[in-house]
Amino acid sequence: MHLLKYDFNYSRRAFLAKAGTLAGAGVLAPLWPLIARGADIGKAYPDELMSIEAWTKGKIKTGDVITAANVDVVKELLTPIAYRQIKEMGRRIRIVATTRDVSRLFPHDYFEATLRNAGKASFGADGNVYAPNGERWIGGNPFPDAKTPVEAYANLTLSWGRHNNAVYAVKDWDIGPDGKVNYQYDFVWFEENTCGRLGPGGAFGSYTGDGHKDKLRYQTVMFTGPSDVRGTAYLNTWYYDQRKFPELVGYVPAFKRVRKFPTNQRFEPLAPGLTFYLSDAWAAGDPMLIWGNYKLVERRPMLGAVSHNQVDDPNWELATHGGPEGKTFFEYDVELIPECLVVDAEPVGFPRAPLGRKRAWIDARNMMYIGYHTYDRRGELFKSFEPAYGLYEKKGVKDLTGKHTTWSWTSVMTHDIQNNRMSRFVQAKQIAGGYKSARNVEGMYDKYLTEQALGRMGA
């Protein structure tokens, strides 16, 4: 019998052949050299990885909606919890075309820095990432063609939002097992990197002083509504050394003071009803060397909401469906991602962590996670953290120079599958308190990212 070189199972055999090897992304050809040349990434993958119709042998095509009736056709392309949501809970997703222009999966300046600095990153003896001169990282993904699980996690950890800084105005709804909205919060999330900075000021920007040179980022979350939590705020100060725990302090209006919180606060909700923990952020909410036993489980195609997730709502809010009341899930557009790295890790630095393991599915094209699951200490599925991303074309939001459309996350659903509680939130245009989503804002550190700022905002 004659075996075709690129028959339907060619990609499966190719991914199996790469298992356990230091191979980069791509099946027919290396992916990142194609991206660097601006070539069509279809040259790196057979048709079955670039077309949902080819993958499913015509059973599913672009524009189709996946429901309980046809989800088994694409079961192996979904995370376990996403499959259960569709099969058992009334969720649906819509298929869109696979993104072939990888520049549409990044903020423009971050993409340019990734191309410019490719090959310059290395791990030091202490396990941290350094530039060639031994300084902190200089911008973009340090390992755009990650070959190991730790390289993949370095891409997630060193710059969460992939901008110098960002203000995310967040509207959150927390859904109970009965499908009703039990809580609704408005909160604002500020994050600022002290290194790997882009655009004017380059890698060093305004963060060269002694007070910042050992830091990676500052991050504050502050609740602006409803009234019973308004002013509650937390400040995360991250060290560049990924072996160190961040400093976590918070302001509670009832006590009118800032207090320090223990490290295990990272595994607790910031407000009643939330299923979102600080540890969940960007699938890399803790320093990467506080976790360990990293394992590259496999490389495989997946369905993920990485583009096209644009809405016409004036406040950037999404329609909902599914669950007992039709309010449990957001509407997501998903595409066939030709290659994802599936990475596991264990919380080795947390002796009393409630988790036993985490798993992230990371898109090989832009090294951003498209799905994230945590497991309890018994090894049972605990929570999912599922984001959606896109260029803000309909919203008309520009990036650093004002010349390019911004790219960012648009929404997240985090589902505690054991208690069937869902927290879903959007990056809104504006929330209670007048805070608006923005990128690369001047003066953010003094305004929002110090203990004094916490008390001032809370008051």
TrEMBL record:
Pfam families: DUF1329
Record-annotated membrane-spanning stretches: none
InterPro entries, sorted: DUF1329 (IPR010752), TAT_signal (IPR006311), TAT_signal_bac_arc (IPR019546)
Domain of life of the native organism: Bacteria
Matches recorded under NCBIfam families: TAT_signal_seq
Protein name (record): DUF1329 domain-containing protein
Organism: Zoogloea dura
